[in-house]
Amino acid sequence: MLKDATLAHEAPPEAAAGAAQPRPDPDMREAILAKLRFAVGRDVSAARDHDWYVATALAVRDRVVERWLDSIARTGPEKKHVYYFSLEFLIGRLFFDTVSNLNIVGEVRQALAGLGVDLDRIRAVEPDAALGNGGLGRLAACFMESLATLDIPAFGYGIRYDYGLFRQAIVDGWQHEIPEDWLSFGNPWEFERPDIKYLVRFGGSVEMVGRPDGTIQHIWHSAETVVAVAFDTPMVGWRGRRVNTLRLWSARAADPLVLEAFNRGDHVGAVADRMRVEAISRVLYPSDATPAGQELRLRQEFFFTSASLQDLLRRHRERHPDFSNLPDHGAIQLNDTHPAIAVAELMRLLVDEHNVRWDEAWRITTATLNYTNHTLMPEALETWPVELMERVLPRHIQIIYLINFLHLESLAKNGEISADLVRQVSLIDESHGRRVRMGPLAFIGSRRVNGVSALHTELMRKTVFSDLHALYPDRITNKTNGITFRRWLLEANPDLTRLLVEAVGPQVLDDAEALSGLERVVGDPAFRDRFVAVRRRNKERLAQEIAARTGVKVDPAALFDVQIKRIHEYKRQHLNLLETAALYAAIKAEPNRDWTPRVKIFAGKAASSYVVAKLIIKLAYDLAQVINNDPDVRGRLAVAFLPNYNVSLAEIIIPAADLSEQISTAGLEASGTGNMKLALNGAITIGTLDGANVEIREQVGPENITIFGLTAPEALARKAEPDHASRAIAASPRLASVLDAIGSGAFSPDDPGRFAGLVGGLRDHDPFLVTDDFDAYWEAQRGLDELWHRPEEWWRKSLLNVARVGWFSSDRTIREYAEEIWRVPVG
C-alpha cells in the first residue's frame, strides 16, 4: 500500500467530495478527435458509441505508453524482475481501470462531454476480457495491478485466447455455453509484437549423442513446431507510478498454408495443420472430458510456459554473460499447477539448449521458481497420463524421471526412504495407471511453496503435501490473498468512496489500512444515514439489472442475500437453495408472521462438463419460477439467478450486497477473494470457518461476522462416518421435508424426477456435508433475519466490516511476496 505523503493528498477529482470540477483539457479533446478520424476512420457526425470508446481508449493509451516506456527505461540490468505465470488473467474491462489509475477520469469526462458523449455510456461498450474462470484469474489481475502500484518490475505471462470463458445463456433454466468473442471488434489496449516470437515444440523422439568429454547430449527431434507470438498489454499501477507488461501468447502455424495441397483443390486439408496449431490459443479451458481435450489442455500449458521461459531467458542473456545469476535477477511465480511443467522445461532449456551442467541447472531452477497452491482437493491437483506426456513431451518425461530418481535417491542416502514414503512423494503415481503428479513436481522444483490463507496453508502442511513438508519443512509459507481496492471500491462503488474520503480523508485512496479511521464515525447517526443512502442507490441499480436480465422485480428495501462464484458442489450453492426452499415452506406455513423480506441472488458459471453443477443452476431457476410467482410470498422472498457472471456484473452486484454467502465445506476453499470484496463494500459475511473467512473474522471481529457449521477438523472426521448424511437428515424434520419436496418434483412438475439424483447423492453419501451443516445454517440465517430488524445494529456491523478489511489489500499481499518469496525491493 502506498504511503507517499505527496500522492496521498492528490485525490482524484471524482473521488473527493466537494472537489472542484476539472477544467476541460483541450489536449485530451483534440487527441480523442484525432484518434476518431485517423485511427478509427470516422467523422464526428457518423461516430457511434463503440467508435468513441476506441478513439478515447487510444488517446488514453498514448499517455500510458509514455509511462510504460519510462518504466522500462528506468529498470536497469541490476533490477530484479518478477515473472507471474498464469493460465488465467481475468482482467475484465481495462478502460475505466486505466483512466482511474492515471487519475484523469475528470478530464476524460469533460473532454467527452464537450463532444456530446457520455463517459459512462461508452465505458459500458468495452467487452470483458474474460481470460479466466474465477478467483485464480482475478487474483492474477489484482496482482498485476499491485505489482505496478508498488513499483516492482514485472511481467505477467499467459495465453491470448481468441475466445475467453464462455458466455453463459440460461434457457429454461439450463446453462448453455456460447463462445465469448471478446476480440470481435479488436482490442485497443494490446500491442502485437510480431518480432517477439518463439518456437514451441511437441512430439517426436529424443536422440542421445555422446560428447567428447564423455557426457551425453539429448537432442529432441520434435514432430511439430508451433510459433508463439507475443501480444503486450500495459498494466497501469495506481497514480500511474509504474506500467508493467502483461505478455500473452498467440499460437500460429509455422506454415499457415500448404500451397501444394491448396492448388490440388484440397482447400480444407491445406489449412488443417494450421487449425490444429491455432486451437492451442483458441479457447480458455477446453473440456478435458475426452482424450483429445486432455491433450489440448496439456499443449496449452506447455505452450505458454515454454514461450515465457524462452522469453525471459533471452532477456536475461541480453544483460548478463550466463545464467548463473538468474535467481538474482528473476523470480518466477507459478500460479497453481497449470505452469508446473516449467520445472522440466527450464531444466531442458538450460541443459539441452544452453549446455549448463545438470546440477547447476537444478540449482538455478529451484532458486528461481516458486509455486502457489490453490486447492486442497487431490483430484484438483493436476496429473497427466505418462503415455500422454511421452507422446506430447518426450524429452520432458525423461527429465521428470531423472528429477524423480535423484529426489528419491537423496532420500535413500539420508535414510528416510520406505515403500510408503516413495508412494507418497514420488512424481509418478503408480496407483492410477501411471500418471505424472504436477503438484509434487512444482513443490520439488520450487524455492518456496505458498498457500493463500492461513488455514489453507496449515492444511497443506497436514494433508496434500504432508510428506513433502516433512522432508522440506521450511519450504511452505503462507501469503493470504488480497484484492485491489482501486477496482473493487474506488471504481465499483464511487459513492461510497466519496463518503469515505469525507470521513477519513484522501489518504484512504492510497493506503487501504487508513479505512480504520472510519471507526470514529460508525456511531454517528447522520453518517450512518448517508451510508445507508449510498447502499440504497447501489441496490436500486442492481434491482434494475436483475429486472433487465431475468424479468424478476425485486424490492431494494429487502435484504439482498448474495452468492456469486463458480458453481461447484464444494462451494455449496445447493445448501443455500435447500435453505431457500425451506424458508419458502415456512412462509407458506405461517403467512401472517413478520418475515424479513429477502432477495436470494445467485450468479456463476458451471464448467461445461460438470453435470451436477448445471443441475444446481437448474434447481435455482426452478425454485425461482415457483417462488417468484406465488402471491403468498410476494414481497417476502424472491430468487434471481443472474446469467453470464463476469467482472463487470460483479462490479454491480458487490456494492449492493447486504449478506455475503461464503458457505463452502470447511477445509476445501483455499482462500476466496469474493468474500473480501463483499466485506469491503459493507456486506456482512455468513460463512464457515474456511479459507480467508478465518482471517476476516480475526480482522472484523467475531461479533461482526456470522460463522456456522463444522470446522475443518470436524468436517474431516464427519466425512469418515459412513452414515453421517442419513443421521443428519433423520435429526432434522425440516431438512427431510425439503429433500422430499425437491426429490419428488414439487419444484419441477414438468419432470418430477429431475432432481432425484441430486437429492439421492445427498442422502447416500453427501461428500460436501450439506446435510450435516443444514440446521446450523438455517439457525444462522434466522439470526440474521432478527438482526435486519435492528437496523442500527446491522449498519454498525456493516460499517465495521468496511473499516477493518484494509489488511486484505493485494498491495499487502504483494509486499509480502516481494519481501519473503521473491526478494525484490518495493517502491
Give a written overview of the molecule:
By secondary structure, the chain is α/β, with parallel strands linked by helices. The chain folds into two domains: 78-93 and 128-481 and 814-822, Glycogen Phosphorylase B (Rossmann fold, 3-Layer(aba) Sandwich); 540-789, Glycogen Phosphorylase B (Rossmann fold, 3-Layer(aba) Sandwich), CATH 3.40.50. The protein is 46% helix and 16% strand. It is built from 33 helices and 24 strands. It has a nine-stranded mixed β-sheet. The protein has a six-stranded parallel β-sheet with strand order 21-20-19-22-23-24, with helices on both faces. The protein has a three-stranded antiparallel β-sheet with strand order 14-16-15. The longest helix has 29 residues, at 291-319. The chain starts with 25 loop residues before the first helix and ends in a 5-residue tail after the last helix.
Question: Main traits of this protein?
Answer:
827 residues, alpha/beta, Rossmann fold, nine-stranded mixed sheet, six-stranded parallel sheet, 46% helix, disordered N terminus
DSSP, total strands: 24
**Main sheet attributes: strand count, strand direction, barrel closure:** 9 strands, mixed
Q: How many angstroms separate the termini? A: 10 Å
Structural class: alpha/beta
CATH topology call of the largest domain: Rossmann fold
Task: Summarize model confidence as the mean pLDDT.
Answer: 94
Strand order, sheet with most strands: 7-10-11-4-1-12-13-17-18
Q: Number of helical runs? A: 33
The CATH class of the largest domain: Alpha Beta
Oligomer: single chain
Find the CATH superfamily of the largest domain.
Glycogen Phosphorylase B
Using only CA atoms, what is the Rg? 27 Å
